[in-house]
Amino acid sequence: MQEYTIQLRQKIQLTHNMISLVFEKPADFEFTAGQFVQFLVPDGEKVVPRAYSICSTPSDNELHFCVKLLENGKASTLFAAMTDGDSAIIRGPRGNFVSTASSPLYFVATGAGIAPIMSILQDELIHKKTDTELYLLFGVHDESDLFWQQRLDDLTNTYNNFSFNTTVSQPQSQEWRGLNGRVTDHLDNHSNGHQFFICGNPDMVKDVRNILLESGVEKTQIHFEIF
Ligand SMILES: Cc1cc2nc3c(=O)[nH]c(=O)nc-3n(C[C@H](O)[C@H](O)[C@H](O)COP(=O)(O)OP(=O)(O)OC[C@H]3O[C@@H](n4cnc5c(N)ncnc54)[C@H](O)[C@@H]3O)c2cc1C
Question: Which of 44, 80, 154, 166 is the most buried (most CB within 10 A)?
Fold first, then answer.
């Protein structure tokens, strides 16, 4: 698998523990929306690979990532210390969490799990100009974990085949106007014609998948990526 050295153009703080990294895209790097790369992270004498999904689209001339910074994580420590102009080495692209169907798409994401979904969603809307119905259910723990709400609002205002809901499992104030609870509490508006794309932590993916299977959705209609 080919390796590329990429240079950081911009680092954006999204929340208290989530950052967005914008790298220049090598001219010969090609990928399909929803795929990930491995960052090769120096660790003493060796390097360790860490998987991160690309959240920009194949047509963009930058590679965007959305990274949850984990305490003492090796890649997290590297990313936290990086400044504009620094280089990183990636290997890839990899992964089969990609959309090939022309049927309505139903996305379920929690936290950084929105990364590959943002790539697929924008690719479908902006570049493929799909007119099929796209719906996103996005879950976070509390209001301090919210990000990209304005960006998603802008997409709904521009594309009337896209809609989304954000659900907060532990809201901290009365001011939160979105949905309350876990994503598993809000899966009632799907039809069996949807293709499902689920991404996030292992328990969430398992729970959502089980609910969908129990409601009669076929295994082949459920695509998932576990972080
Ligand atoms: C296909 C795929 C795509 C992904 N895409 C993304 C993405 O877009 N964005 C994103 O944020 N994440 C993504 N992930 C998840 C990400 O790869 C992992 O969270 C990764 O482990 C983070 O790397 P790290 O080096 O920062 O942390 P690691 O070094 O892997 O450590 C993870 C956590 O475990 C703890 N830990 C490590 N070793 C020990 C130990 N010996 N004892 C106790 N605790 C320990 C660390 O302190 C840290 O909190 C993806 C995962 C996969 C599989």
Answer: 166
